[in-house]
Each structure stands twice: as structure tokens, then as C-alpha cells.
Amino acid sequence: MEIVIVADGAAVAARAAQIMAWAIRAVPQPVIGVATGSSPLGIYRELAAQVRAGELDVSNVTAFALDEYIGLAPSHPESYHHVIDETVTKQLGLDPARVHVPNGHISDILTSGDDYERAIVAAGGIDIQLLGIGANGHIGFNEPASSFASRTRMKTLAPQTREDNARFFGSIEEVPVHCITQGLGTILDAGQLLLVAQGESKADAVAAMIEGPVASMCPASALQLHRFATVVIDEAAASKL
Ligand code: GLP
């Protein structure tokens, strides 16, 4: 695992965007994995600026999101369909037909995980997967005790995750209880992993991911098993290393 510690959130975004742009330029048909949450937003802004400046061609990019809430309509402002559409697809000018988000419709849930796995394989696999980290060490919505071999499937959100994400909703009661997420096995299949974190609230999770044991109680510790994982964090997130 390569650990890059920079001064602040702006520097995290700049460095991570540079790594994403390298990966996009490296192959003719790039497949990127994108994440929601606040951590990657600066990266998307940086990449969009490169696209506008004519420095980055994203016309052949295919994207796969990590996860989705179950039970929110795709048009709901907090559904990850909507969030990815606003923060990634529109901002970078990606072809919407090439942007995939797991199907969180409850009536499809028995098949939507396998369908998503097949779509990733059909696209040729993910070249670079961008990740944030939850305060409890989750990646995607793989909460503590997720299997390292898991594939895209339905999960129950941890109470802490629902509390953390309540800020995006009117109240905690409005935060869905279930989600669909790429599994840790799915994430580990990507050619490169790029995890970003900023702020002191992530310091414990970052320390457990990097210096703790490889253990399912810290799902992000799975990055220790990957041959090409890069972690870009600011000094506050690195403060417990
Ligand atoms: C969310 C997402 C994760 C994200 C994490 C951290 O629940 N499912 O993919 O990495 O929580 O979010 P933030 O970057 O806002 O701290």
C-alpha cells in the first residue's frame, strides 16, 4: 500500500485527481469506479476542470458506482443514482449510458447484485476504483464484519452509518436501512485502488486500515491485500498513524 500524506483536503483532491487522470489516459477504454460521500467531491471538480481545459478526454470512460440505497427512487435527491448523475456524469460530461449505479429497487434485489457483477465483467473489469472510508472503516457500504470474498449484494446499514448520513436527509428516520453495495471481493478485483480521506474524524479508521490487522471488523483493511492500492490523506486523517 502506498500512503501519500498531504497538507489538506484541497491537496488530497489535487493529488487523487492526478492519479485518476493518469489511469484514464493509460488505456483506450478506461473503466473507473466512482464513490459517493463528501470525500471525492473535490476530485470530481478537479477532473471536470481538466476536461473543460481540453487536457483530459473522457469520451470513452465507463463508470461504475460502488453502492446505492434500497428503496429510494432514482430521482430522490439522496439516491446515489441522482448524486452520481449530478456530481460525476454531468460535471465530467460522461456518456450517461456508460455510467452504472447498482439497482436498489426492492423488487429486483434478488438479481440486481449478479446483474451488476456481470456488467462489470462485460466492461472488462474496473481499472481504478476510487474509495472513501466510513468512520467505522467501511468502504462502499461494506460494514464491519463484511466478508473479504463478498460480491455485490444487499446489506443492512450499521447504525453509525445511518447517523453519519442523516446529515444528507431531514432526519435519521428518513435514512434507508438497507443498501446494495459492491462486495469487498468485487472491490479487490479492480486493477488499482485509490482511497481518499480528510479530517480528524477519519483518523481512527485510517489507522486501523493501514496499521491494524487485516480483519473484517475493519473492511478497509482489505486494501492491505491489494497489489496496487494508493491512500491519499491529509495530515488530520493521518494524525493517528
Ligand atoms: C458513505 C458511502 C461511502 C463513503 C463513506 C464516507 O456512506 N457509502 O462510499 O466512502 O460513506 O463518506 P464521506 O466521504 O462523506 O465521509
Automatic annotation (TrEMBL):
It is an enzyme of class 3 (hydrolase). Pathway: Amino-sugar metabolism; N-acetylneuraminate degradation; D-fructose 6-phosphate from N-acetylneuraminate: step 5/5. It catalyses: alpha-D-glucosamine 6-phosphate + H2O = beta-D-fructose 6-phosphate + NH4(+). Its EC number is 3.5.99.6. It holds the Pfam family Glucosamine_iso. GO terms for cellular component: cytoplasm. GO terms for molecular function: glucosamine-6-phosphate deaminase activity; identical protein binding. One of its GO terms (biological process) is N-acetylglucosamine catabolic process. Residues 10-227 form the Glucosamine/galactosamine-6-phosphate isomerase domain. Allosterically activated by N-acetylglucosamine 6-phosphate (GlcNAc6P). Catalyzes the reversible isomerization-deamination of glucosamine 6-phosphate (GlcN6P) to form fructose 6-phosphate (Fru6P) and ammonium ion. Belongs to the glucosamine/galactosamine-6-phosphate isomerase family. NagB subfamily. This is Glucosamine-6-phosphate deaminase. It comes from Leucobacter exalbidus. The gene is nagB.
